[in-house]
Design brief:
Radius of gyration: 29 Å
Helix content: 55-70%
Structural class: mainly alpha
Mean pLDDT: 88
Number of helices: 27
Largest sheet: none
Strand content: under 5%
Length: 616
């Protein structure tokens, strides 16, 4: 069944309105600051500032050089690469990062429009699906938050792979099939949930058939799935070389708790999908530690009801079955996550399921049209639904995006929505600390450890704030408690060593620096600081060894080269000192300490003899 020719004109007329509405909804997010994980993944990520790009494909997502991936499970080099290119081409300001997020969402909107047209064979109804996807406020977190780019990139490449595969299926085109598979490979490198896209292909009607017609499989789809399988194997090999075989558990342990969580989390995502106001970065109404007692049994009952509903719909409404599974399959990988921040669900996981949500809105609108509206032209009815629904969603999206303006605004909203979530209070404390509002930060951290006494991360942050306030005994007590609660955390021992060194307690500072290096041998900042501490005690040979190890491992060891040059000058090895200072300046021509130390060295005699001064 081919689209009505009139739909072609409507498509062109409404496309500008659709994209304009998306820009209107998100334009002011272009002026937003970095927020939340943006600071770890972008602002304070030294990996993005290194000259090479291939290193991004050899590390896990959170292994930035300053911190390690705590779960050793995320491999998203395309996202990291996009951050690096953003930084190199357009500078370190947040504007270009937000702009790329908006452009990716616009591209995804167009792809959803194309896929909806392919599914419904009607451009006017396809616009209803595209409007729901483009303007639903549950997607604000993905678009207005820079770190939400993982889903935007996965969506862009994944939806493009569906488009390529559907073209290949209809036209028996090998180039389109290869294009779709290449996009699928890039989607896998953007986010792990992209593994689902070949299953999404099976939910589209076969070529020439209506959406209510039976059939999910064909020879062409078998060929497509084989090429997708090859891409998946290639991805697996890349992932293995970066992560290895050891992957920390991020899912809820225990099969019974998993089943209960499935029912509860699925109901929570359904509620979020139907909501247009009241979104937040964190929720505390459903956490892993709550899966006991009545709530546990409620989850099992909900799961049975949800499964019964799927079976009932599957027997009576084939189109609804396809659409519901388009929404559900992208949620399956995240339904039993333990929750990164205390909650078992989050808005950002609904971006890819938004494809099914938009299609479901069309089926519902068509049902209402057939039952209650007069028999006018269907295109006019779909246009009115698009306009009215788009206006409501546009207003809701503008309102929802306001909380992502900056860290303080974001986490103030988070603690209001989740007052019992210790992580929300900790994040708000970090936001105040970044702005140097130390009293407010201290109050937030104390609330976090009150809610969760064994929350070592919040206790460490409290110690850092107390140190900034020069309340050293109180800071030391909090450091000791944090280290006792999590003795394997090298950051805690390193920060304590820094405080002790600043107080002049060299012997104890050395002990804690060495403890840090026992926990994390590649902690180059700790090794450099240990070298500085040893150098201040005139233990030059020991300090020299530490700086040499840093220089061997660090891609831009400017400070360690400068310090090693000082040691060589003090030891009378002026040629070696000069070489160190010159190398430091080649790496960073603006590094003044190295320039000044080089100038202090006596000039090389014309005859090549040794100068008499020892330099700096």
């Amino acid at each position: 069944m081919n689209p009505d020719p009139a739909d072609q004109k409507i498509t062109r007329v409404h496309l500008a309105w659709l994209l304009g509405a998306v820009i209107a909804a998100y334009a002011w997010s272009l002026g937003f600051d970095f927020a939340w994980d943006d600071r770890s993944l972008i602002v304070n990520n030294p990996l993005l500032r290194r000259p090479g790009l291939l290193e991004m494909f050899t590390r896990t997502f959170w292994d930035t050089g300053r911190m390690r991936d705590a779960f050793n499970v995320f491999y998203r080099p395309i996202v990291t690469l996009s951050y690096g290119l953003n930084l190199r081409w357009f500078g370190a300001g947040p504007f270009s990062f937000h702009l790329l997020n908006l452009l990716l969402h616009l591209a995804n909107t167009v792809l959803v429009l194309w896929l909806a047209r392919r599914f419904f064979r009607n451009a006017a109804w396809a616009f209803v699906a595209a409007v729901v996807f483009a303007l639903h406020p549950v997607h604000v977190e993905n678009v207005a938050w820079i770190s939400g780019r993982t889903d935007l990139l996965a969506g862009c490449f994944g939806l493009a792979s569906l488009m390529g595969w559907l073209h290949a299926e209809e036209r028996s085109s090998r180039p389109w099939m290869l294009f779709g598979t290449a996009c699928y490979f890039l989607a896998l490198l953007s986010k792990e949930v992209s593994v689902i896209f070949p299953l999404a292909l099976l939910l589209f009607p076969l070529p020439g058939r209506d959406r209510d017609a039976p059939g999910f499989w064909s020879l062409a789809r078998m060929q497509i799935c084989l090429t997708a399988g090859a891409a998946l194997v290639m991805y697996g090999l890349l992932r293995f070389q970066a992560l290895g075989s050891r992957i920390h558990g991020i899912f809820i342990p225990g099969w019974a708790d998993n089943l209960s969580a499935l029912g509860l989390v699925l109901a929570s995502y359904l509620r979020l999908s139907l909501r247009v106001f009241g979104f937040a970065p964190q929720y505390d109404d459903l956490r892993a530690d709550m899966l006991h007692g009545p709530l546990f049994w409620a989850g099992l009952v909900l799961l049975l009801l949800e499964a019964a509903g799927l079976v009932w719909i599957g027997r009576r409404r084939r189109a609804w079955t396809r659409v519901i599974w388009l929404w559900l399959i992208f949620l399956l990988p995240v339904l039993t996550l333990q929750g990164f921040g205390g909650t078992l669900y989050a808005d950002r996981y609904l971006y890819l399921p938004g494809l099914g949500l938009g299609f479901a809105a069309v089926l519902l609108a068509q049902a209402l049209y057939r039952r209650w509206l007069s028999r006018r032209e269907e295109t006019l009815a779909a246009g009115r639904i698009t306009g009215g629904l788009g206006a409501i969603l546009l207003a809701a999206t503008v309102a929802a995006s306001a909380i992502w303006r900056d860290d303080v605004t974001l986490f103030t909203r988070a603690v209001r929505a989740a007052p019992h979530a210790a992580t929300a209070w900790n994040n708000l404390g970090l936001s105040w600390s970044t702005r140097n509002y130390l009293t407010e930060a201290e109050g937030c951290f104390r609330q976090a450890v009150k809610l969760k006494p064994d929350y070592s991360h919040a206790r460490h942050n409290l110690a850092v704030v107390l140190r900034k306030q020069q309340r050293f005994p109180d800071a030391r007590a909090e450091f000791d408690t944090a280290i006792r609660q999590e003795p394997s955390n090298a950051l805690y021992t390193f920060t304590l060593a820094e405080m002790l060194a600043a107080q002049g307690q060299a012997r104890e500072a050395e002990t804690w620096y060495r403890k840090t290096l026992e926990l994390k041998d590649h902690y180059l900042e700790a090794r450099h600081n240990l070298g500085e501490l040893l150098m201040s005690q005139d233990r030059l040979d020991e300090a020299r060894e530490e700086f040499i190890r840093v220089i061997a491992a660090h891609p831009r060891p400017v400070m360690s080269l400068n310090s090693l040059g000082i040691i060589e000058a003090r030891s009378g090895r002026l040629d070696a000192a000069r070489s160190c200072f010159e190398k430091a300046l080649r790496l960073d021509p603006q590094f003044e300490p190295a320039r000044q130390n080089l100038q202090r060295l006596p000039p090389v005699p014309a005859g090549g003899g040794k100068p008499g001064s020892k330099g700096p």
